[in-house]
Amino acid sequence: QLQEQQEEIENMMNAVFKGVFVHRYRDVVPEIRAICMEELGTWMRSYAASFLTDGYLKYIGWTLHDKQREVRLQCVKALQGLYCHQDMAAHMELFTSRFKTRMVSMVLDKEPDVAVEVVKLLTLMLENMEEVLTEEDCQSVYPVVYVSSRALASAAGLFLYRRLLDPQREAGREPSHDGDNRIFFRLLLAFFIESELHEHAAYLVDSLWDCAGPRLRDWETISALLLEESPTEGLVDRQEKALVEILAASVVQAAEGQPPVGRGPGKKVTGL
Questions:
Q1: DSSP 67
Q2: Selection from 109, 50, 112, 41 nearest residue 80 by Cα
Q3: 3-class DSSP state for residue 234?
Q4: What span, in angstroms and rounded, lies between the C-alpha atoms of 105 and 148?
Q5: Do the Cβ atoms of 33 and 25 come closer than 8 Å?
Q6: Residues near 66 by Cβ (< 8 Å), separated by ≥ 6?
Q7: Confidence bin at 270 (pLDDT 50/70/90)
Q8: What is the pTM of this model?
Q9: What does the alpha-carbon distance between residue 36 and residue 27 come to, in Å, rounded to a whole number?
C-alpha cells in the first residue's frame, strides 16, 4: 500500500513537472523563469532521490545561459544549495563535466552580483568535489582579486586563500601559528610576484582581509621574514620589496578600515 501511494505521488509530481515546469522554465516573463529555477533547486534538495538526476539538472545547466540577470542568479544559487553538501555534489559529476566551462566563464558575468555568487559556487566546488577544478579553471578566478568591486574581489580572495594560500590545506600537517604564517606569506609573495601587478598590493590585501585578516596583521612574522639573513631562509630582493608593499598596505587597511581608492561596493567589474 505504501509503495502504491509513493508511486501515485511520484506520478503526480511528474505530471506537474511535465505539465507546468517544462513549459514555464522558458516563459517569456523572466520572473517566472527565475521562480522555476529557484523551485527546482528546492525540489532537488528536498527530494534528492527523485530530482537530483541529470534529467532534471540539465534544465539548470541550460538556463545558466539566460539573458536575464535574475534568472542566471537563481540558477547559481540553486547550484550552491547542491554543491555545499558533499553527498549531493557526489551525484553531480556528469553535470559538472558538462557545464563546468560555462560556470567558470560566468566569473566575468556582466552583472557583478551574479559574478559574486559564481565565485562562491566555485569555492564550494573546490571544497566539496576533489580535483574537479583544474589549474586552468582556477587561473580564471585568481585575477578577480584585483577588480574594483569589493564584494567580487573578496569572494575571489576566499577562493584564492582556500586554493593556494591556506597553510593547512595539506592533509595531516600540524598547525603552528608562526610556521603557518611564514608559509602563508611565502605563498602570498609567490602569487603576488607571479601576477605581475606589483602596484596593486592594496587591492590584494583588501581582497584577502575578510578571510585572512589575522594573518595579514601578523607584523611580527613579517618583520622576522624581512630581517632574516640566512641564505636558505631569507628573502631575495624582489620578495623583500613585495613583502614591504604588502606590509604597508596591511598597516593602512588596519588603521583606516577602508578599501583602497577606486574600490567600492557598487563598482562595475573592471580591472581584469
A1: S
A2: 41
A3: coil
A4: 19
A5: yes
A6: 30, 33, 72, 75
A7: very low
A8: 0.89
A9: 9
**Rounded Cα–Cα distance for residues 149 and 144 (Å):** 9
CB atoms within 10 A of CB 135: 7
Cα separation, 254 vs 250, in Å, equals 6
Q: What is the pLDDT of residue 216?
A: 96
> CB-based burial of residue 150 (10 Å sphere; 0-12 exposed, 13-18 middle, 19+ buried)?
buried
For residues 189 and 243, what is the distance between their CA atoms, to the nearest angstrom?
Answer: 7
* Residue 212, all three cell numbers: 585572512
Nearest-angstrom CA–CA distance, 146 and 161: 14
Q: Are 216 and 205 in contact (CB under 8 A)?
A: yes
Longest dimension (CA), the chain: 79
- What is the Cβ-side half-sphere exposure of residue 1, based on CA atoms within 13 angstroms? 0
pLDDT at residue 169 in the model: 74
Instruction: Count CB neighbours of 261 within 10 A.
Output: 8
- pLDDT value at position 202? 95
Q: Residue 97 corresponds to which cell in the numbers above?
A: 563535466
